[in-house]
Design brief:
With 43 residues, this protein is mostly helical. The chain has a domain of 27 residues.
Length: 43
């Protein structure tokens, strides 16, 4: 899996700002994967 993104265009065109940092996003994704693996180790 691959996650690539640059929010600069959304910031400029839509006046959008991310609510969390990239580091926080990664933490949330890893935590979700851990929960999934605990429920189903073959997932």
């Amino acid at each position: 899996d691959l996650l690539i993104g640059n929010p600069k265009k959304a910031e400029e065109k839509l006046n959008w700002k991310p609510k969390i940092t990239f580091k926080e996003l990664v933490k949330e994704m890893v935590a979700a994967d851990i929960v999934l693996m605990k429920r189903d180790p073959t997932a």
